[in-house]
Amino acid sequence: MKYLKGGFKLLLLIVATLCFSQLIVSCSSGDGPEETPEEEVIEEPEVPVEEEGTNEEPDGSDETVDEIFGLSANLEPWENFDLSDWAIDTPAVDEEDGFSQRFGELNWDPLATSDSRPFFFTHTDGGMRFVSTIGGARTSQNTSFTRSELREMLRKGNTSFSTQGANGNNWALGYQPTGTNHGGRNGSLTATLRVNQVTTTGSGLHPGRTVIGQIHASSDEPARLYYRKLPNAEFGCLYLEHEIRDGNDVTFNLIGDEDCSGNGPEDGIKLDELFSYEIINDNEDIIVRIFRGDTDGALIAEMTVDMNTLNSGYELADEWMYFKAGIYTQNNTGNDDDGDIVTFYRLNNTHDSN
Q: What pLDDT digit, counting tens, does each position of 286-312 carry?
């Protein structure tokens, strides 16, 4: 009997436990308010924003680009830079003749409210930004390419000098005859810049190819400095073309070559990478140097064109020169809205007296 009573007590305990458990289940699933499980939050993926260059100093220091170069994002390009001896041609249409709009020398302000504004302005880091599109206006019927490019004007607004000719507006190569009326002799063009975008559409050699600095003569170009990067490549190439007067081009490779195939050269220049160039005329020589970073950075390429050896043909009294800098898009086979963007942080042009 003692064991039976004990078993009966154990049975009562089990029954009581089961009933209590059922009661809990019933309370949590009965007529009371249903507890809604916490909803899983699915975050929308961030849409990547294309950065238009960077304001960071290239050596990783705390100083920003505008501090290094003394530029202000609140000033116009012609206020940040001395552009008194430059004019610009842009892809905007001049309604009077159907060609490119031109502004500059001592009359820059009208550009700010013109159709040329999207093609030339101050970037957010203070740099001087040039934009060119394939479908824009050209400077004349003699060119098939568009540009947002500065043209050197030594006359500085003195319109008694024509823009063309062996006069005070233009300069002579150092090996041209002396005793002329040129505005200077020999020359140096120095620039620090970033190529932010190049064309990605088109065919043949055209995609990704643009000119960032020139020595231009009356009809030919003794020096055209090219940057080229293919659409899926990481690195870009730099090369120079020297045009024999009334003749063919001679190509000089600086970093990579004009094909710039594959991923580009490992020592090449990426988009948005800061680099500098010098284009110098010293007597019969044209010297080109490329620096990584600012002009005091590492020299990564250098070459010399000897115009006497090449029989280039520019040693004439009536030939005349001017520098050009900015973007000269070398692509007319791509989409009209495709184009190039470059930002300059330094630009200096000097000449010896004639």
A: 999 999 999 999 999 999 999 999 999
